[in-house]
Amino acid sequence: MTNKDKRNHTIDLLKAIAAWFVVLNHASFPGTFGQYVVALAHFASPIFFITAGYFAIHTTAAKTMKSIKKMCRYILFAYVLNLLRLFLLPRTPSVFSFEFWNNILSLRHLSLFVLFNESYISGVVWFLFAMLYCYLFRLLLRRKDLIKLAYICTAVSCLIPIVTLINNNEWINVNNVWLRGIPFFAIGGYIKLYIENGKPPISRLYLLLCAFIGVTLISVAFVTNTQLWHLGTLLLSPAVYYKATQSNIKKNILCPLGYKYSFMIYILHPFVINVYDFYRPSIGLVESWIRPILIILITILISLFYYLIKDNIKVAVRKNAWFKS
Q1: Residues 78 and 123: beta-carbon distance below 8 Å
Q2: What is the pTM of this model?
Q3: How many domains does the chain have?
Q4: How far apart are CA 15 and CA 242, in angstroms?
Q5: HEC string for the chain
Q6: How far is the C-alpha of 118 from the C-alpha of 112, rounded, in Å?
Q7: pLDDT cut 90: percent of the chain above it
Q8: pLDDT in tens, 202-255
Q9: For residue 143, how many other CB atoms are within 10 A of its CB?
Q10: Which of 6, 47, 214, 296 allows an S-S link to 232, with CB 3.0 to 4.6 Å?
């Protein structure tokens, strides 16, 4: 059996679904239903961290460096997109204004950016830098030290909803490497090691219970407007991912969206949302329901077009190198 045959297509499909939910988190359906989907969509970004940890737990330093370089390219691409958005869309802050650069280069912004991945430039910058930090920790730390760090980060992460409730529900930004990145990255590694150690598979009932409690916490958070959704994702996302590792569906047309295009969908969707909303037709009830679906489809098409150009360039470069040799 080839490595290609061993590929888990269920994980690929899960990544595709997660990418769609990431888009729905920022391009939501109207009304209460749309806001509830946004709440559920919080499970999506952890899937990408879990996947990274799952496949990085045994990687060599050379492969980890390759992942770091790849993430740096994604970050550069995301920054170019965001700057392009600022140039193209007049409603956004002008890149020529003093206030814009004063905010970007301020000590406070740079400190928050380096420590907690908070960026004045919107988009998915926090996620990409959090992922980059995860790979850097994997490269620089021994596995047992990374596990110790993960225990601390996960414990602190679990305390966040309690802290916010004590402080009159004043929300804390959990979108950073410490509270989302490292905990879920480590969970992915734990899942991989658990499976490899030959331990008995976690029962379907237990996984269903974890997922149910996770969805319940997210639902309670939605009703009470609290950060309990964060605890919900700590149960829901790993349960769903572990279940995916234990099954392998037959490859279908959606699987390539997961293993090849999902990350680019994640990166592109803020730009697509901004451009779509700028040129958006007259807003109506029907258009409001169609808008999220259109944004998902447009983002997928741009991702396909991007990789089509990229793959053709690679083929042309190889052919040119072959002729020269």
Answers
A1: yes
A2: 0.93
A3: 1
A4: 13
A5: CCHHHHCCHHHHHHHHHHHHHHHHHHCCCCHHHHHHHHHHHHHHHHHHHHHHHHHHCCCCHHHHHHHHHHHHHHHHHHHHHHHHHHHHCCCCCCCCCHHHHHHHHCHHHHHHHHHHCCCCCCCCHHHHHHHHHHHHHHHHCCHHHHHHHHHHHHHHHHHHHHHHHHCCCCCCCCCCHHHHHHHHHHHHHHHHHHHHCCCCCCCHHHHHHHHHHHHHHHHHHHHHCCCHHHHHHHHHHHHHHHHHHCCCCCCCCCHHHHHHHHHHHHHHHHHHHHHHHHCCCCCCHHHHHHHHHHHHHHHHHHHHHHHHHHHHHHHHHHHHHHHHC
A6: 6
A7: 67
A8: 999 999 999 999 999 999 999 999 999 999 999 999 999 999 999 999 999 899
A9: 12
A10: 214
Which residue is it, tokens 């047992």?
A: 144
* Listed residue (44, 46, 53, 11) closest to 26, CA to CA: 44
